[in-house]
Q: What sequence folds into this?
């Protein structure tokens, strides 16, 4: 069977599903507004108010291997937070923080220069005279609203969140699927090298 593998740059305000089952008076944008390929579903999720890379496929085995936290595939995010985190806060994020009934795994965390991104629509709401900072955070798990809860737990609320890469582990090597050459709302099929990697992981 020939499986489909699609990389999509999810814009802000788009649901990670093809139908909106909320029954609200104001229907929300879904994947159907951007992707007309039948039978594919997102591997993992991004919240309505988050942006960035989604992998969609009809390969159920691959979806399980990339979604189940026991396989520890890394995901990297650019995170704009309110105020400037100090070294203690960064160390806590990297070591793991307590969130309700669980403790997050160790993560890679560093400050970065403001990345080149298209303005968000709607724009981020800033507070006057309050600086912001960008972080790059790499996790090996994907719990509900985890990044936002992590930064809030150490006192630096997330203002904007963009997933920039999904790591595919092959033994000791990790290859990154990334947003390269995609703009918000655009998608592409994976290239041949990416497809071979995903098929290999699916066959394990």
A:
């Amino acid at each position: 069977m020939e499986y489909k593998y699609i990389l999509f740059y999810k814009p802000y305000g788009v649901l990670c599903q093809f139908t909106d089952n909320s029954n609200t008076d104001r229907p929300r944008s879904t994947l159907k507004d951007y992707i007309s390929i039948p039978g594919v579903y997102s591997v993992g999720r991004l919240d309505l108010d988050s942006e960035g890379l989604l992998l969609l496929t009809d390969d159920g085995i691959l979806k399980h291997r990339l979604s189940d936290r026991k396989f520890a595939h890394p995901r990297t995010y650019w995170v704009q937070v309110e105020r400037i985190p100090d070294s203690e806060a960064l160390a806590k994020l990297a070591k793991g923080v307590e969130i309700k009934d669980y403790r997050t795994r160790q993560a890679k965390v560093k400050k970065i220069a403001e990345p080149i991104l298209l303005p968000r629509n709607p724009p981020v709401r800033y507070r006057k005279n309050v600086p912001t900072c960008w972080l790059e955070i790499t996790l090996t798990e994907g719990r509900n609203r985890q990044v936002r809860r992590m930064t809030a737990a150490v006192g630096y609320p997330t203002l904007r969140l963009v997933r920039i890469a999904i790591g595919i582990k092959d033994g000791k090597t990790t290859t990154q699927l990334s947003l390269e050459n995609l703009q918000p709302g655009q998608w592409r099929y994976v290239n041949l090298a990416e497809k071979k990697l995903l098929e290999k992981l699916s066959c394990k």
Notes: The chain has a mean pLDDT of 92.
